[in-house]
């Protein structure tokens, strides 16, 4: 019964060349998701900071939520930064695999 629930494939070694364009696009999407997460968490942190001032009775709760949201914003920003560099690495690998060279013309 478990065989029908979980699809286990015996993957043989795939010797086909990597699809650099697909990987680059995937990293770009993930980079944008990281940026979006950072913006959203940052906005939430600012909202909690505002609520902390407006609601002194629950200020400690708002301060904790602000700090958690700020940490989430930093993490999401770091993830976006990481994906940006992965995208650049894939582009560089593609150029090296294709034999492309950068020609810097000084005009």
Concise description?
The chain has helices at residues 2-5, 20-54, 59-97. With 107 residues, the chain is mostly helical. The mean pLDDT is 85.
Number of helices: 3
Quote the beta fraction. Answer: under 5%
Shape: rod-shaped
Unreliable sequence segments: none
Helix amount, in percent?
over 70%
Q: What is the residue-mean pLDDT, rounded to a whole number? A: 85
Task: Tell me what you see in this structure.
The structure is a single chain. By secondary structure, this protein is mainly alpha-helical. It is 73% helix and 0% strand. It contains 3 helices and no strands. Helix 2 runs antiparallel to helix 3 (59-97). The longest helix has 39 residues, at 59-97. The chain is rod-shaped, with a radius of gyration of 22 Å. The protein starts with a helix and ends in a 10-residue tail after the last helix. The mean pLDDT is 85.
């Amino acid at each position: 019964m478990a065989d029908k629930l979980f699809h286990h494939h015996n993957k043989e070694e795939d010797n086909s060349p990597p699809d650099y364009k697909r990987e680059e696009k995937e990293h770009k999407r993930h980079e944008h998701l990281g940026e979006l997460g950072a913006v959203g968490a940052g906005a939430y942190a600012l909202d909690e900071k505002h609520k902390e001032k407006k609601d002194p009775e629950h200020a400690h709760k708002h301060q904790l939520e602000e700090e958690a949201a700020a940490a989430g914003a930093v993490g999401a920003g770091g993830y976006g930064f990481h994906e940006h560099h992965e995208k650049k690495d894939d582009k560089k690998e593609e150029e090296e695999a294709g034999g492309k060279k950068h020609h810097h013309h000084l005009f």
